[in-house]
Amino acid sequence: MRPKYKLLTDSQWQSIEKLLTDKRKRKYCLRKIFNAILWVCGTGCQWRNLSSEFPYWQIVYYYFNKWKENGFFEKVMSKVVRKERMRQGRNYAPSAAAIDSQRIKRSPSINIETGIDGGKHINGRKRHLAVDSQGLPIAISVSAADIHDLVGGFDILWRIEKNSSGMKLIRTDMA
């Protein structure tokens, strides 16, 4: 059973807020908007079914798209991973990574970038992941399921280079 969703703590929000470059005055609190995005991603509900404790779903969805396009979520993920590595007493930048992929069945509401994987006979999408030795994400890429692992792995290499300059070893499976 999944634990109940928890709002961001003050210290978590302070570290995320530092990454926001636009400091103008707003009608809606960005912390509430970020919490709403995490709530949608954590519960799997549709945007239109967003709880009334958050701003209107259109506003939350607007910021989700805006932050997705400008790479804000990647910056947050990178900062969280670096902090966790430092907390564990490791260097902030990983020196080794492992790359693999996973197929996901298509949901009825998704119709972009889908395909049928010939080997597994799954109609859907494929996520390519690069993780460090602790299992923390370094880079994530999503493609159609009919994209070969070799192509998806090549696509994820530039993401690894952008997030981790000191990479010495990358492990992968046969593809």
What's the order of the H and E elements? HHHHEEEEHE
Distance between the termini: 35 Å
Query: Any idea how many domains?
Result: 2
Number of helices: 5
Strand content: 15-25%
Overall pLDDT level:
82
Instruction: Please report the total strand number as a whole number.
Output: 5
Regarding quaternary structure, what we see is single chain
What summary fits the major beta sheet?
Answer: 5 strands, mixed
Structural class: alpha+beta
Q: Which value, in Å, is the CA radius of gyration? A: 18 Å
Q: Low-confidence parts lasting 5 or more residues at pLDDT below 50?
A: none
Helix content: 25-40%
Shape: globular
Question: Can you walk through the features of this model?
Answer:
This protein has 175 residues and is of the alpha+beta class. It folds into 2 domains: 11-70, no CATH class; 93-172, no CATH class. It is 38% helix and 20% strand. It has 5 helices and 5 strands; from the N terminus they run ααααββββαβ. It has helices spanning 10-17, 30-43, 57-69, 72-87, 149-163; strands spanning 96-105, 115-117, 122-131, 137-144, 169-172. Strands 1, 2, 3, 4 and 5 form a 5-stranded mixed beta sheet that branches. Strand 2 and strand 3 (122-131) form a beta hairpin. The mean pLDDT is 82. Pfam families: DDE_Tnp_1, DUF4096.
